[in-house]
Amino acid sequence: MTVRAFEIAELLDQAPDGIEVLSLDCFDTLIWRNTHAPTDVFADIEFTGGGVEPRMWAESHARKRAYLRTGAREVGLTDIYREMLGNADDAEIEAAIGRELAIEANHAFAFAPTVALMREAKRRGLKLILVSDMYLTEAQLRAHVAGAAGDDVLALVDQVFVSNAYGEGKRDGLFPHVLEALGVSPDKILHVGDNRAADYDSAIEHGLHAAHLVQFDADAAARLRMEAATALMLDPQCGITRPVAQPHRAQIAMRRSDDPAYMLGHDIVGPGLATFAHWLKNELDEASAKAGKPVRPLFVMRDGYLPWKVFDALYPEMGASTVEISRFVALRGSIADEKFLDHYLEEWTERLPVRSLARQLMLFSHEYAKYDKATDADAAKVEREAFVKWVRKDRDIQRKIFTRRNAFLKKIVAHLSAAGVERGDAVMLVDIGYNGTVQNLLTPILAEAMNVSVSGRYIFLREKRQSGLDKRGMIDVRNFDYRTLHALSRSIVVLEQLCNVEQGSTIDFDADGTPVREKTDAKAASNATRGVVQAACLDFVSEAAGPSRVRAPRADDLDSRCRAAAASFARLFFLPNAGEVGVFESFDFDYNMGSAASVTLVDKGRGRHGLRRRGLTFYNDQLPQFMSAELQAQGLPVSLANFTASRFKLDLRSTDFEVGGIKVPVILAGAAQQGVMDFTAWPTAEGYYHVRVPVGPQRPVVAVQLGQICEWVQVEEFGFMPLEDMWDGKTASTVPAQATADAMEQMSPGLFRAGPTGVLIAAPPAGTEPMVLSLVFRPVVARKAAAELRVAA
Known about the structure:
The chain is built from 29 helices and 26 strands. It is an alpha/beta fold. The longest helix has about 30 residues, at about 260-290. The chain starts with a strand and ends with a helix. About 45% of the residues are buried.
């Protein structure tokens, strides 16, 4: 039978009649580790270059040597360390063994449901034994169990069988020794373990009843592997001198729901935000001690909603409050004089339309109406420039802006007072991050208006410019480099969307501080999905699935949890799975700048078409908020390439991927002459190729002779782009060509059956600007291949 981790406590209810002995595997059944893989603990062995590989090599060599000498398939720690340490004497070997046992104990914990099963077995009068494939001696294993689970749990165990003592593992012949020692028939024993071959297949072969413990569902197991891989990508020392910590493993094993949104909230958001809450509590305690008075935590809405709920659930005594100081209102409150006005206009003029700029400056529609009439992008740009020039020049309008700002500041003060902030308080703004813009703006404002000191704490913190303010992030430069932090910050909107509350962004306040919010048109599906994610996160925090550990291992410290949270979030940002992408497809997001406009978070078509048309480097020209979700369907190689290039900021260009090209004959027919030239089409993705044909000021007609190379061909793109758009860093915009197909029959949109003389003809574009004809096509059936198939037939 198969048993999931959350079912194991009730396993005996399903046991066959007549069972007299409950046999348990030890590691990953009763005793779990706080790391991804068992060998991860070896990173704590102090060994030049890292202890993991030398320790693994030593064990492998010791096993080979033992088998060749005596036929034994099992070894002990003494054998292993004699291989690892060469000429070390007995005292040095014993000391090394002691260090490893201490390291193992540091990471070990007992899985609470298995302990519950043990107690139920004793209540029913069953004999309880441990059967373990392990290089520890029986005494060492007993001590290990007692250290991780407690003496009371060890006292439940009647006998211990360790492969080290018999020279054979469960797959090789350990179970006959167990049966001989117990003196009972095999059908009286139920054995439970996590290794399918050793604990289930072998037990069944020897006549025992058996249950295979499946710790994780397939999605969770794959996700944990990807989290471990991500940890190695983020931290050069992870897996070498620092173990790959995964303190949330046991509780993930207890999750029962397989709904993708629930899994996202429970397995990823829950552990990450719980860790943030514990980290934040430490930061508040430290800041309060330094200030000599309590520092009041203020969670900034909207994105701070779920972090606030998690923190308040774990630390209700801290009296955490929420404030609705959006970036929009913080900017509005900061424009106190001409200097701040200039700074605002410099930063936002190119990023917002006139209407949004004017609303930020508290101008009325009749005051700026003449600058808000454009219906196309070029005219809007001219109007925006004129608007900025007017604001900078007109002293009367500036006086109105500053006067209205002073009145607005009083409303901010009223809002903070309603949240319990008093004059002279110390407050800590809490948000997801990543720059702390609201803190930058509010610090001088609140010092001026309320004599309030402001600090800030964030999940992510990556400042491009050092503000000099009291800021920290759970994930910041103290544990990761700027390149890593920048890569993570590109997808921070993903976490924001999961954490925020279903309400519009705050754009104003009533006189008493009540927020005035922007109207939203959020999708109902997005609201419902977010609700499932957030409820699952809070389930994790409250341990709704039941306790998973008897007690936490010593290695489960705050630093390891923070690093595990970073790996978990980064894995979501860069290597989302299909279920997670499906969850995010219903999400829209806005920029929180006083505009109700929103955009779709995930557009899978953009990733698919981008890869087809430009290959792996198309993301150099685009910065969508959740690029990795748009690439997920293209497979792990593409996702890893995107992750690696982003994490290490690799200077990869389209020419670096140009390999395996095919020659495409092209006719260039000008007014005075014509000729045929071969151009190379380079592979992009999904069997597509991209060929570029330069078109100079003479504007020849371009006829691509696809019929010479393809019998069936699919055309993805056929259009012109300015030559200057081909340079790195430019966004390539392609205008569809006026195309004519000759000797090519269109069978469905974009799909052609081409004769040997088939050509795709592009009429020359107007003007003299250097252009490039861009053709992206897929040879569905190559002409040579078609001919070979006919011959073979």
